[in-house]
Amino acid sequence: MIKILLLSLMLFSACSFKTPANQWQYKSTTAFNSYTQNFLSMQDTLARDDLKRAIKHAKKSANLTQLAKVYLGECALNISVGADNSCIKYENISNLLESPELNAYYRLLTKNITTEQTQYLPKQYREFALQTLNAESQKDYKYILEIEKPTSTLLCATLVKNKLDNAFIEELIQLASYNGYKRAVLFWLHEKLKQTQDEEEKKKIKKRISILVT
Amino acid sequence: MQYNKMRLAVGLFIITLFLVLVGSIFFLLKEKGVFDKRYTYHFTTSSAEYFSVGMPLKFSGFNIGVIDDISLKDDGSVYMSFSISEKNRKWLSEGSVLMIIKPLLGSPHIELYTSAGSPLLEDGAIMNILLSDNINDLIIKLQPAVKKAVNILNSIDKITTYLASEDSELKQILKNLAKFSTKLANSDSLLTSATGDKASTQNIINSINETTKIMQDIKKITADVSRITASLKQDIVTPASSSIKEIDLIMKDINMKLKTINPTVEAIGSYDTELIELKEQLSVGIQKSNQIMDKIDALMQDEKHSEVLLP
Fold it and tell me: Left (φ > 0), alpha (ψ -120 to 50) or beta: where does B310 sit?
């Protein structure tokens, strides 16, 4: 029944809407969005396939901006869960691009951003970038939790993870848990475990990790 | 009247007695086979010696007949006839042979040897007879051999007499031997006696000594070679042999496994093209499923964006 309904919907959509010329771009974006969800929720097989499809569709165009965004997005997601902080794929094609926005984003990820470049960042990162650049400012990162996009919150928090207390980390764990980002949850649980001194609390954290892993 | 009755009774008694006597005799003769038909056969020999009328003819130790007549023929041979009763006729068949048996003790007799299964011999047939040797015949046959033995003994006697004489060759040889042994006793060595020259003897002795030294050297070399080969066997040959055996076992094992794998490889080889086709079909299927997934993802998206929104 569901299959018939799904097929009907597909036929309906195929007949009702005009297919755009840059279909590859839509497909690549859709695959990347799926990759984001699957990667953070630790569905690795699906995530790998989604990333492959995102890259494959992006490579249909000579304009490498879409491909660079996919590479940077992959790098940002890995950084946000403490997996990998290098963006080698982007670095390999960066000299072929004339995009100050992407360069600024890359600089943010590598903690190498300048004040001039902050204007090219997505809105949610501008304050964070300025705060991190200003060594004299109050190191209160509460505003990070108020960023609308949870992936952006997690990324910002990871970039300053050594400056966050356990209460803040617990807030991040709750945020990641609410969105079903298992990979991010495990990462922040491990970070909390590192910072916790209380043995009883450590045991509880370990038990939480064990439950999620098994 | 009384007298007549007595004469009648006596007459009847005598007649009855006569009849019983005649009947008994007839019965007795009949039982003896006097009235049976007899079959007569003949044979010829060179001499009638040992034969006589009434001489029994035996078969397997039983008397089955007797010689009835012996007569001398004009050519000097003796013609004999014997008869056999009808009951015993079955023992005489074609191929039957007679033999005169002359035992050392006891009277001679004729023995019948017959062949079973042959047809019966007809009445009046002439048979063959064989004469077996008795002790006298053996003595007669041995006489030439005895004569030869006597001659040999005479010859031996002559030879020994000759050898014993002073001028015989044996006596001469013995004298020469005595001289030789005397010479040996007086000479320094046997070799000098044999060669007659002391220098030659010394040469032979030197040669023998040299040969002994050479033999000792050869013995030493052989021992060294034996020791070397033993060490070779221990150090090289034995390990090499065991290694070769192990390699042989491994190779056999590999060979067996290859034989086992071979059908599978052949089968896989035959499926090669099919696998390529299958792989292509799977690839096409996956690509199509990816296209469907893209479309489903696009349908399930809340918002449509053409550009990637970075995290």
Answer: beta
